[in-house]
């Protein structure tokens, strides 16, 4: 399953498409995306829950938020925005897998917006 535009949320999967975490750990060497279900917890030791990203293509960039730059990834002139990135572990009893959730996916799971994370970090 392609997950090319990560700014769009995918529709929920059917139950048949969800595999166990143990199964996912075995297949993720070959398969890049999969559906899993489980209890999530924050990965400890995270310094911040956002990163600087190109507003146009959403790729990470090492430029301060608010700047306008020529993006090296998409080559467009674009604003630098804060984008949510939260490391989580998903555990379903068969195993635990570390993953990262971005943008709208993350904001659905946690009660803060990127802007709130960014403001908390910079003030
Ligand atoms: Zn870009």
Major sheet details: 5 strands, antiparallel
What's the shape? globular
Q: What structural category arises from helix and sheet content? A: alpha+beta
Total number of helices? 3
Termini distance?
A: 40 Å
How much strand content do the residues show?
25-35%
Bound molecules: zinc ion
- H/E element sequence: HEEEEEHH
Number of domains: 1
Integer average pLDDT: 87
Helix content: 10-25%
Roughly how many Å is the radius of gyration?
A: 16 Å
**Poorly predicted residue ranges:** none
Count the E strands: 5
InterPro entries: NA-bd_OB-fold
Could you describe the 3D structure shown?
The chain is α+β, with helices and mostly antiparallel strands. The chain has one domain. The chain is built from three helices and five strands; from the N terminus they run αβββββαα. Strands 1, 2, 3, 4 and 5 form a five-stranded antiparallel β-sheet that branches. It is globular, with a radius of gyration of 16 Å. Bound molecules: zinc ion (ZN). Zinc ion binds next to loops.
């Amino acid at each position: 399953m392609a997950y090319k535009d990560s700014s769009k949320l995918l529709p929920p999967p059917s139950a048949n498409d969800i595999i166990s975490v143990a199964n996912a750990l075995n297949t993720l060497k070959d398969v890049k995306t999969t559906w899993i279900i489980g209890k999530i917890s924050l990965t400890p030791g995270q310094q911040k829950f956002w990163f600087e990203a190109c507003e146009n293509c959403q790729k990470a960039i090492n430029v301060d938020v608010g700047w306008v730059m020529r993006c090296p990834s998409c080559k467009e002139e674009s604003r630098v925005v804060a984008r949510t990135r939260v490391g989580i572990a998903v555990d379903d009893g068969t195993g635990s897998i570390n993953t990262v959730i971005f943008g709208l996916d993350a904001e659905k799971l946690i009660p803060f917006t990127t802007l709130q994370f960014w403001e908390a970090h910079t003030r």
